[in-house]
Specification:
About 50% of the residues lie in helices and about 15% in strands. By secondary structure, it is of the alpha/beta class. It has a domain at about 5-110 and about 185-250: Rossmann fold (3-Layer(aba) Sandwich). Helix 11 (about 210-215) links the parallel strand 5 (about 195-200) and strand 6 (about 220-225). Helix 2 packs across helix 3, helix 4 (about 110-125) packs antiparallel against helix 9 and helix 5 (about 130-140) packs across helix 8.
Length: about 260
């Protein structure tokens, strides 16, 4: 088996593993092994040829961890990555020693949110060449906080570049998969491992009310609100997020 002190980090939509670069460096320096899998459809991985479902994505990551003989890892996910992490916990909770949920939520989409996701999926498939423009117009405003838009132009440019690189098929597949996700509140309520709920103070997509709902469900939860950050807090305030993660891991005395 892979040795102790391993963190598996799952990225947000429609980014890829690059969004965790600062945290991967900081955790590595603190003595943790870091694994950042490509979710299907991102990086070098192909889109799944199946009915969109985050459970299928969870199965892919779980199989990859089995191939690498990784047990007892800390599981971290931001936004989409958090949804996948909760699906993995639903399937194999015994395989993980702690959980870090960042800028995500355990509740399913409202009817309006599901409709918006399906509309976005249809838009990018109707005009694949305009996928980046569509994402910049419809997704980018919600990904970053007001402070980032006002003060961190390099971050805005970087995230905009990730949107330009997104594959239309992956965008459509994941929008439909996220729209179909179930509530993960029962999964969190059944978890006994230490869990960190972390979010950006200016996050409009996963606001504090959603974070409090997760914290109320967890048996062993702690929280970290990142000031002057939005939905991609790990990219907007990388040093602060890295430090909060390390403090959580050290305080929880993880025994992988």
């Amino acid at each position: 088996m892979k040795p102790a002190r391993c963190v598996v980090m799952l990225h947000a939509f429609p980014c890829d593993g690059r969004m965790w670069a600062a945290q991967a460096d900081a955790l590595s320096e603190a003595g943790w092994d870091v694994i950042i899998p490509d979710l299907p459809g991102f990086g070098a991985s192909d889109v799944l040829e199946a009915e969109p479902s985050l459970d299928l994505v969870a199965d892919v990551v779980l199989r990859e961890l089995s191939v690498q003989r990784i047990e007892g890892a800390v599981l971290a996910g931001l936004s989409l990555g958090g949804y996948v992490a909760m699906a993995m916990m639903r399937k194999s909770p015994e395989r993980f020693s702690a959980l870090m949920l960042c800028d995500t939520k355990a509740s399913p989409d409202s009817a309006e949110a599901r409709e918006n996701r399906h509309r976005l999926a249809e838009s990018v498939m109707e005009d694949p060449s305009a996928c980046g423009q569509i994402l910049r117009r419809s997704v980018l405003p919600g990904l970053l906080g007001a402070a980032t838009f006002a003060e961190r132009p390099a971050v805005v440019d970087e995230v905009g570049g990730w949107l330009d690189e997104a594959r239309p098929q992956a965008v459509a597949w994941y929008q439909r998969a996220m729209a179909a996700r179930p509530s993960s509140i029962p999964t969190l309520a059944a978890a006994s491992i230490p869990a960190l709920v972390l979010w950006g103070e200016e996050d409009p997509l996963s606001p504090e009310v959603d974070q409090r709902a997760m914290l109320e469900s967890l048996n062993n939860g702690s929280s970290a609100c990142i000031p002057r950050a939005g939905h991609l807090s790990a990219v907007e305030r990388p040093e602060v997020v890295s430090q909060r993660m390390i403090e959580f891991l050290e305080g929880a005395k993880i025994r992988c």
